[in-house]
Amino acid sequence: MCGIVGYTGPREAYPLIIKGLKRLEYRGYDSTGVALLNGGLKVHKKKGKVADLEESLVGVNVHAHTGIGHTRWATHGEPSDRNAHPHASASGKLAMIHNGIIENYTQLKGELIKKGYTFKSDTDTEVLLNFIEEIKSNNNCNLEEAVRIALKRVVGAYVILLLDQDDPDTIIAARKGSPLVIGIGKGEHFLGSDASPMLEYTKEVVYVNDYELAIVRPDELILKNLGNEKLTPYVQKLDLELAAIEKGGYEHFMLKEIFEQPQTVYDCLRGRLDAASNTVIMSGVQKHIDALKNAPRVIIVACGTSWHAGLLAEYVIEELCRIPVEVEYASEFRYRNPVINKGDVIIAISQSGETADTLVAIERAKEQGAIIFGVVNVVGSSIARISTTGSYTHAGPEIGVASTKAFTAQLAVLYMIALKIGVEKGTLDQSLFNKLFNELNAIPDKIAEALKQSEHIKKVAEKYKDAKDFLYLGRGYNFPIALEGALKLKEISYIHAEGYPAAEMKHGPIALVDDQLPVVFVATKDSYHEKIVSNIQEIKARKGKVIAVITEGDELIKSMADDVIEVPEAHEIVAPMLSTIPMQLLAYYIGVVKGLDVDKPRNLAKSVTVE
Fold this sequence. Notes:
Blueprint: E1 3-8, H1 13-23, E2 31-37, E3 41-47, H2 50-56, E4 66-72, E5 87-88, E6 94-102, H3 105-114, H4 124-139, H5 143-151, E7 156-164, E8 171-176, E9 181-184, E10 189-192, E11 204-207, E12 212-217, E13 220-225, E14 230-231, E15 235-237, H6 253-259, H7 261-269, E16 273-274, E17 279-280, H8 283-286, H9 289-293, E18 298-302, H10 304-321, E19 325-329, H11 330-333, E20 345-350, H12 356-367, E21 371-376, H13 382-386, E22 389-392, H14 405-425, H15 430-451, H16 454-464, E23 469-474, H17 479-493, E24 496-501, E25 518-522, H18 529-540, E26 545-551, H19 555-560, E27 563-567, H20 576-593
Parallel strand pairs: 18-19, 18-20, 20-21, 21-22, 23-24, 23-25, 25-26, 26-27
Antiparallel strand pairs: 1-4, 1-10, 2-3, 2-4, 5-6, 6-7, 7-8, 8-12, 9-10, 9-11, 11-15, 12-13, 13-14, 16-17
């Protein structure tokens, strides 16, 4: 949520910031703006897309060598020009952009109103900015010191970037709970919510930690903690190419990322499935293998698509490792008072590694003695840093808001964790281990085969694009895939969809079935096959339209369904990695034929860094 870009150096700041904001559009936003230092401080902002801001500034002097830019996802105050960032302070001398939520802004605002301040927006950001200016004025101190004093009063999460017209080459930045990356160039510095805005200019970056403050000038980067102690920036090399964040000839990022899955899953497995020794090599697991295999309980915390990956992991870990598993919505878990015992293992799953609810949940669990295992995609992210141990998914940047390749990469990592723990614990016999090892190794090629159904799936999408509701049903390992399929359709096409265990259909959802309702069955061949056939017959008896995802050659279900989508045969434990591919493509093509922006669905954000 919210995109942040900053630059100071010899280049023209405005075009660089605009390009960076476009790179961050995948994060989700409703308004945008820039603040530029050019013989004074100029703020330009507008409701709508980055392109709307650009159009409004045609013919305007935007020359500057230092500036900040922002894409806003509304929290406090409706989307509007006045609530858009950057905000200017009461004096007009300071400007600030902000990602996060200031929880005690009402109290701070009340204090400022008593001192005569008035506000032009409804945002918590403008309150914090004027609070900083008030401190700067009353204490006769510089902006850096005022920010440090102010943040000691702030409750909440934030990344802030500030400009001061009296210090025209400097950006002051600070973070707590939201991501901030600083790129290091020759006589220039770049700032961003992630590395994508600076990728073509530098490969050297610093990931700013919580409670750190950065003073950024063209030729200087000073990092301090809130106690004013200087820190040594840890410079990392980006292992990322520009082509990874471009469409590469595809119509949409979502389609590109769906078709990248044979490679991204291969990259995830590479070096971890050692065919020569027939072993799973995962250093993050091996370092803590005794704690993991002897864990009294595993709790998986995640949100959205990552929660569905966790639900499937529950089935797999309990089957192969015989460890009790609970799967929690991080947004609920963080506000409960859960019973967490020393030795419990918390698996935190997040594509971005910055999901606010998941981050807070594991911070609290860690305080209670739990071992935190992070499964994240973004190197250097907050969850990766706070975790006791973990594994990266190596899916590469995912630009489309609806998660696709990140999901299958998460599943690959979770399967390998289960295999590793199960064989070390002795709960997974060698013959089944060998079978699953080989099946997992073959999955990238089988995903490539499943993708060959894309043109057929496009025709199915055209047939059902006008449906008002969908029902997704699955059993066993395929139940989480039914949930994920329904979520994808809701996200991308705005069609109401629900996922259920197929056997639960009789306990309510069957009342919805008529000749207008498409019902998607995830019905690959497994130990539930006979049961799912019965469920299909129950739907057909009530004139429902059946779309079935089946194993190649399943003539029985093919004879019953209105439409079928075939995937290659695979062991039932790993088959969900194949059955999810048609779910992704069906949602994508329905969204496309409805003329929707599938890469940036309304109201959604890629990285949910606020409550």
